[in-house]
Write a structure and sequence with these properties.
Oligomer: heterodimer
CATH topology of chain A: MetI-like fold
Structural class of chain A: mainly alpha
Number of strands of chain A: 0
Largest interface: A-B, 46 and 48 residues
CATH architecture of chain A: Orthogonal Bundle
Largest sheet of chain A: none
Number of domains of chain A: 1
CATH class of chain A: Mainly Alpha
Largest sheet of chain B: none
CATH architecture of one domain in chain B: Orthogonal Bundle
CATH topology of one domain in chain B: MetI-like fold
CATH superfamily of chain A: MetI-like
Radius of gyration of chain A: 22 Å
CATH class of one domain in chain B: Mainly Alpha
Strand content of chain A: under 5%
Number of strands of chain B: 0
Number of helices of chain B: 12
CATH superfamily of one domain in chain B: MetI-like
Order of helices and strands of chain A: HHHHHHHHHH
């Protein structure tokens, strides 16, 4: 992938002391061309998710019936939508929905899937077999279908979208963590911890987790992009966050009807999603090159 | 080889059985009453009851499941509530459209993706490489529903080159297929590039150079063929994603394929069609994975499934 350093298989990731490596990682990430672009984009969008509603010039929900589907003009730089709501304000305020949903869903998926994978890999036996069969069934529904199914089941809303998009990530995180756990489990320091009398829970959290976390972080960053795509896709299909909330996917769906009248309505949220996803993807690529040259996606 | 394929098919059975059970209970847990949706909000209770009876929804869940499972064992997916025809027939009618769309998209994504990936790898660090890698990551990052809308705006609204709504006419297929291909194309190009770059570092490439082979021959005969083996897996995976991606792309273009049908059936709570569609999607996914693994053995003589 871009600027991939010559891979040093496995040596960099597993079980090295953590402190020194982390500091170097940020510096190396900043020197990584596309990775630093990703870091800037991601930081910008996370900032928007926090501050967007406050820096928005207008109330994103306030209609102005004298100014419907207006083009770019002073005061409304990105025009207005079919209700005369300021598009710039809606995109800024919408970051709180779209970005927060994407990030929390990824985090939830990584936590649940990671815990499942760690446990399955460590415990082995029937626990491993059963959970991996469950993962297989989940993976038998490709991509967005699982999320569509879940969100239809729970009904629309922010919470359901987070849940549905999180479940879409669980099987993949479980597979990934289980794989690394199996690789680390057999190593001497884990055996030593067991021999010293450490219990299963302690071995998993203190010894296995630090060794398997790097690929999970890298993958979670990459996954944030696709989770954002799935979550906004659900809202685009009308199954996710409901209007009038300024969620980007939902805004695009509304804008579709006015494409001939006011294309800015569609371009603004569309470009916002694209840049946010691009940011996560670039940052994930950069992190992989810096932290973990062995992960391939 | 035959033993391997049979073994894999047998292994897929528990997964698919899990899917069948899960999907059956999933559709019945959906909020909303198919009978009520079918007869309309104005209908009186007796009409709703009659519809429910006709759909077999008046029976207990276990009874319904046994009925469904027995039908399925005979290859019967049940009657569509909405179309009042066999669900299999409804699905089959929309299958062709999606098959054509997905095949065009995956072929375009594969051919262009591999070509671009190879071109980028051969000129590593050049402007061409930068342009290809940037376009690839942009293709992966752009939501298909936005890309579709962009295409519609550009080619249908502004330039008026192509029809807005998709149809199975060749011209109507261009935009949906391009939209569907974009993400896969980016992924395949990136993967082909990195796989080829990795291959260049191998000893046998150095040997080939050292024994005086022309660079073109080294790349064409030794590097690319080996580099493409892992790319095959990604193409298989992409095909699966692409099939599920049809849900969004077909909605954007109002293209009446399987993805569009799924959203319609979910809205109408047409249980038999939803069940059938999800089963079709998972069977396809399992089969694609199997085909990829078998192709692997054909391309790479080091792999044997004996």
């Amino acid at each position: 992938m871009p600027d991939a350093p010559a891979a040093t298989p496995d040596a960099g990731t597993v079980g090295r002391p953590r402190t020194g490596r982390r500091k170097g990682a940020l510096a190396r990430l900043l020197r990584h061309r596309s990775g630093s672009v990703g870091l800037v984009l991601t930081t910008f969008f996370v900032f928007l998710a926090v501050a967007g509603p406050w820096i928005a010039p207008y109330d994103p929900a306030k209609p102005d019936y004298t100014l419907l589907t207006a083009g770019s003009q002073p005061g409304h730089w990105l025009g207005t939508d079919a209700f005369g709501r300021d598009t710039l304000s809606r995109v800024l305020a919408g970051a709180r929905y779209s970005i927060t949903i994407g990030l929390s869903a990824t985090l939830l998926g990584a936590l649940v899937g990671g815990a499942l994978g760690l446990w399955a890999g460590f415990a082995g036996g029937w626990i491993d077999s059963v959970s991996m069969r469950v993962v297989d069934v989940m993976l038998a529904f490709p991509g967005i279908l699982l999320a569509i199914g879940l969100v239809t089941l729970t009904g629309p809303g922010v919470g359901p979208v987070v849940l549905a998009s999180a479940v879409f990530g669980i099987p993949v995180f479980a597979r990934l963590t289980r794989g690394s756990t199996l690789a680390v489990k057999e190593r001497a320091f884990v055996e030593a911890a067991g021999a010293l009398g450490a219990r299963g829970g302690r071995i998993m959290l203190r010894h296995l987790l630090p060794s398997v976390i790097a690929p999970v972080i890298v993958f979670a960053t990459l996954r944030s992009g696709s989770t954002l795509l799935v979550a906004s896709g659900l809202s685009f299909l009308g199954l996710g966050v409901q209007p009038p909330a300024p969620e980007w996917g939902g805004m695009l769906s509304d804008a579709q009807l006015y494409l001939t009248v006011q294309p800015l309505m569609a371009f603004a949220p569309g470009i916002a999603i694209t840049l946010a996803v691009l940011g996560f993807n670039l940052l994930g690529d950069g992190l992989r090159d810096v932290l973990d040259p062995t992960v391939r996606t | 080889m035959t033993t391997y394929v049979l073994k894999r098919l047998v292994q897929a059975i528990p997964t698919l059985l899990g899917v069948v059970v899960l999907v059956f209970f999933f559709v019945r847990a959906l909020p909303g009453d198919p009978a009520r949706l079918y007869v309309g909000t104005d209908a009186d209770l007796a009409t709703v009851e009659a519809a429910r009876e006709q759909f077999g929804l008046d029976r207990s869940l276990p009874e319904q499941f046994v009925f469904y499972a027995r039908g399925l064992a005979q290859g019967n997916l049940g009657q569509s509530f909405r179309a009042r025809r066999p669900a299999a027939e409804v699905i089959a009618r929309h299958f062709r459209a999606t098959l054509v769309l997905a095949s065009i998209a995956i072929s375009a994504a594969t051919v262009l993706g591999v070509l671009l990936g190879v071109a980028a790898a051969l000129r590593r660090g050049s402007l061409v490489d930068l342009a290809i890698t940037s376009t690839s990551i942009l293709g992966i990052s752009t939501p298909s529903f936005f890309l579709g809308i962009l295409f519609i705006y550009l080619f249908a609204v502004e330039l008026r080159w192509l029809p807005v709504a998709g149809s199975v006419s060749p011209r109507g297929l261009v935009m949906p297929a391009a939209t569907l291909a974009a993400a896969g194309l980016g992924t395949i190009a990136r993967f082909a590039r990195s796989s080829l770059l990795e291959t260049f570092g191998n000893d046998y490439i150095r040997t080939a150079h050292a024994k005086g082979l022309a660079p073109r021959r080294v790349i064409g005969k030794h590097a690319i063929r080996n580099a493409l083996i892992p790319v095959l897996t990604i193409i298989g995976l992409q095909f699966g994603f692409l099939l599920s991606g049809t849900v969004i792309v077909e909605t954007v273009f109002n293209f009446h394929g399987l993805g569009w049908l799924l959203i319609q059936s979910i809205e109408a709570r047409d249980y038999p069609v939803i069940q059938g569609l999800l089963l079709v999607f998972s069977v396809q996914f399992v089969l694609i994975n199997l085909i990829v693994d078998v192709l692997y053995a054909f391309i790479d003589p080091r792999i044997s499934y004996a």
